[in-house]
Amino acid sequence: MTGPDDILHVEAKAEGVLLLRLNRPEKRNALATDLLGAVADALDVAISDEAVRAVVLTGADKFFAAGADINEIASKDVGGALLDIRPSIWARIRAFPKPLVAAVEGWSLGAGNELVMCCDLVVAGRSAKFGQPETNLGIVPGAGGTATLPRLVGRARAMKLVLLGEPMTADEAQASGLVNDVVDDGGALSAALELAARIAARAPLAMQQGKALVRASLETTQAAHLLLERQGFSALFGSADKREGIASFFEKRSPIWSGK
């Protein structure tokens, strides 16, 4: 359980769905190391919780997360940046194996946008803005803004976002492949929860394997990926869910997934 003053609110929603809400309004949900770590900790707990089949991550009405904590950045020199624990925290978030859905209203900048890129599906309010403004501070993105962003939106869009430091709209983000769905302002969370509930009602092992294999496309050659895909495909043939899926098809009934 979490209280109103906690920097991350954790709440069970529909069956199988966990909601994580960034809660640092006085800093526009700036992703200081403690808040980033709280997200990773909550996801680590969700990994071992069989009742959780999908997670929704959201912020506030006017800002998802407005970047990293500038005070933390200002206090570090080269050595401090190289020894920062944040890369290990980011790695834990990226390694979360269950479907992760972002609900974005308002600003998603810098580390906030890099957190969005850790998610598998993204729903945005129409007025949402997405950007990597680090070059405005004389630095560059450090957690995916140059490594992951061009793989999602393409080289040209990524170059413009990084070199000019100007955000793109929700519609532009959808057209570029960063966002799945754009909804009316104020509707991102409900739409994201609906998506997560639909995912949570599906075969858990297939959802996790599907996520892992699609994400592998960002890092793997096609030849190697085809081998991984076939291995993942074959592995599920030994699952109870595969047997249940086939049986329910022939028996013309809804499947009851066990995640086994």
TrEMBL record:
Pfam families assigned: ECH_1 (PF00378)
Protein keywords: Isomerase, Lyase
Source organism: Sphingobium yanoikuyae
GO terms under biological process: fatty acid beta-oxidation
GO MF term list: hydro-lyase activity; isomerase activity
Protein's name in the database: Enoyl-hydratase isomerase
Protein family per UniProt: Belongs to the enoyl-CoA hydratase/isomerase family.
Entry-linked InterPro entries: ClpP/crotonase-like_dom_sf, Enoyl-CoA_hyd/isom_CS, Enoyl-CoA_hydra/iso, Enoyl-CoA_hydra_C
